[in-house]
Design goal:
The structure holds 2 protein chains of 2 kinds.
Chain A (H helix, E strand, L loop, with lengths): L3 H21 L3 H28 L6 H19 L3 H25 L4 H19 L1 H4 L5 E2 L4 E2 L2 E2 L3 H22 L3 H11 L1 H6 L4 H27 L1 E2 L6 H14 L4 H17 L6 H16 L3 H21 L7
Antiparallel strand pairs in A: 1-4, 2-3
Helix pairs in contact in A: 2-7, 2-10, 2-11, 2-12, 3-4, 3-5, 3-10, 4-5, 4-10, 7-10, 8-10, 11-12, 11-13, 12-13
Chain B lengths: L1 E10 L2 E11 L4 E5 L6 H9 L6 E6 L2 E2 L5 H6 L2 E4 L11 H8 L7 H10 L16 H14 L4 E5 L7 H11 L8 E6 L2 H7 L2 E6 L2 E7 H6 L1 H8 L1
Parallel strand pairs in B: 3-8, 3-9, 6-7, 7-8
Antiparallel strand pairs in B: 1-2, 1-4, 4-5, 9-10
Helix pairs in contact in B: 3-5, 4-5
Chain lengths: 327, 230
């Protein structure tokens, strides 16, 4: 089945969803926010998949980069009136700079040092946001102005929905084309075999850093968009809990696949929202799911879908075979 | 072309190579023989910059490359085809080959040349390398190394785990490399096979060169064979 046979209908459904919600009319604003928020989280999942699925490096603190991006955008908007595009770009840039400081020492070491370093970073960032209240507003958080984009007012739920949707599409296309470049192949080579990658002249350590910086930029930009979407940022949005949610999206979705990351984001976000009334319940469910996925479906959602597709083609082939099966 | 002078290599505190000296003349095939754990693969890794020698010099074309990183060494035309093939299983055959030319500008010409040499890869370009047979993977590994336009190719156990017919085919290809000005340093456990194709051979044991001799002399010397080559 060609790729666009799935992609095109999905994009069309996403594009007309606000109209459908309008017709239903009930709790429209809430649902628009939930889906827009999902679009932003899916960008983070894609960014994390670029690091984990494509390059084989682990980040356990990706919400730290989302937080850096969100606070950068919020501060620039609240103090200087920077718009959504500028906020997202600045947020991504600052997250990328932070990742450079973490990544250069960590990726020169082998193994899972990056995972440990990012875990520490993720824990530190929301504490810094909490305590540095002169800059971040502390536990009071920061309010943003009504969002504008290139001079246009996008401050309605429907317009922000489309902004988030377009951002997700742009992020998808960016990562998708990146994986098809020489640099993208180097990411995959580092993941598959560091020795062979080095033997081909791929500079292993700096390739890991570049992947980490790209991933952090995207997560930071998503954070910037999130700040405008929510209209408000506060430290509790970016704790270690949400890092684990992003991690779960990638693992459940199946690493190394953009549709997998988006699918994983759908599942995780749905569980998070459905179980929101009981605190801690969603993490308990997701923790259990990660264990089950790793033990029984190591390829995640992506592999389940592929296996299904493969089974169907074998069946077709068996049916069309000229030699009878019982011969 | 390549000259190792008293090269020492340590893995942490364990010393693997103890003052190895070796020379590869232009356009030749040099075999490096020895038992498991003698340090053969370590020597290749030291030459290609994956490991850094703790002492000694490695001179390639008059330049000391022993302190360069692996991508600089690859750019000078020293290409390592690692043990166990190490193709990138999650990438297609085409992507594997393109990675071989990572440090080169335009891979087009070399790509066609490699497909010409290993015709079996042609119909498999879109297939994931992990789904190839062992023989095809070895062809891909060597083809990928050729994509880097080597002047010196370091081949680590190209016969490992392959059917005799495929081994014969692969060695036939290797024996033609000198026509393209490619010198070869060949690591093999199968000494008989290696000596058939090599011009010169070194025997390594416990991290030291025990002797070196012209390959055709070594082929006929039963004593040396029984003592060192098994």
């Amino acid at each position: 089945m060609p790729r666009y046979a799935v992609t095109v209908p999905v994009v069309i459904i996403a594009a007309v969803l606000p109209l459908v919600l309008q017709l239903i009319g009930e709790r429209q604003v809430y649902w628009l926010f939930v889906v827009s928020e999902f679009f932003v989280f899916a960008i983070v999942a894609i960014s994390l998949d670029l690091l984990m699925g494509r390059t084989g490096q682990i980040s356990l603190g990706h919400s730290g980069f989302v937080a850096v991006g969100a606070y950068t955008a919020a501060i620039l908007n609240a103090r200087f009136g920077v718009d959504l595009l500028g906020g997202a770009f600045a947020g991504g840039s600052l997250a990328a700079i932070a990742s450079l400081f973490l990544g250069v020492p960590a990726t020169r070491l082998r193994g899972h040092y990056l995972g440990i370093v990012t875990l520490g970073f993720g824990i530190a960032v929301d504490q810094i946001a909490l305590k540095w209240d002169a800059l971040t507003g502390g536990d009071q958080g920061l309010h943003l102005h009504r969002p504008t984009l290139l001079g246009l007012d996008v401050g309605t739920p429907v317009l922000m929905y489309y902004v988030a949707l377009i951002a997700l599409i742009v992020a998808t296309l960016l990562v998708w084309s990146l994986t098809r470049t020489r640099l993208g192949r180097a990411f995959a080579a580092v993941k598959d075999s560091e020795i062979a990658a080095a033997a081909m002249g791929v500079p292993v350590a700096s390739t890991k850093v570049v992947a980490f910086v790209c991933s952090a930029f995207l997560a930071g930009a998503a954070g910037g968009i999130y700040a405008f979407l929510a209209g408000f940022v506060a430290p509790e949005d970016f704790g270690i809990d949400s890092s684990l949610l992003f991690f779960a999206m990638v693992v459940i979705g199946g690493m190394g696949s953009i549709p997998g990351a988006i699918g994983g984001a759908i599942i995780v976000d749905a569980i998070k929202n459905a179980a929101a009334t009981v605190s801690g319940l969603s993490l308990a469910i997701l923790g259990g799911m990660i264990v089950l996925v790793v033990l029984f479906f190591p390829g995640g959602l992506k592999a389940l879908l592929r296996r299904h597709a493969a089974k169907r083609t074998t069946l077709d082939r068996t049916r069309n075979a000229t030699v009878p099966l019982d011969a | 072309m390549l000259k190792l002078d008293h090269v020492h290599v340590h893995y942490g505190r364990v010393q693997v190579l103890r003052g190895v000296s070796l020379e590869i003349p232009d356009g030749s095939v040099v075999a490096l023989l020895g038992a498991n754990g003698a340090g053969k693969s370590t020597m290749l890794k030291a030459i290609s910059g994956i490991l850094r020698p703790s002492r000694g010099t490695i001179i390639f074309d008059g330049e000391d490359i022993s302190r360069l990183d692996s991508s600089a060494i690859v750019r000078r035309g020293v290409i390592h085809c690692p043990e166990g093939r190490q193709v990138f299983p999650g990438l297609t055959v085409r992507e594997n080959l393109l990675l071989g030319s990572y440090v080169r500008g335009n891979p087009r010409v070399q790509f066609d040349r490699v497909i010409d040499i290993f015709e079996a890869l042609g119909p498999r370009l879109g297939q994931l390398a992990g789904t190839l047979s062992g023989g095809e993977q070895q062809m891909l590994a060597i083809g990928r190394a050729l994509m880097g336009e080597p002047r010196l190719l370091l081949l680590d156990e190209p016969s490992l785990g392959l059917a005799p017919l495929i081994v014969e085919y692969i060695f036939k290809v290797i024996s033609k490399f000198h026509e393209h000005d490619i010198s070869v340093l060949l690591v093999e456990q199968n000494a008989t096979l290696a000596l058939e194709f090599a011009d010169w051979a070194y025997a390594l044991s416990h991290g030291q060169i025990r002797f070196s001799q012209a390959a055709d002399e070594l082929r006929d010397s039963d004593l040396v064979r029984s003592a060192y080559l098994g």
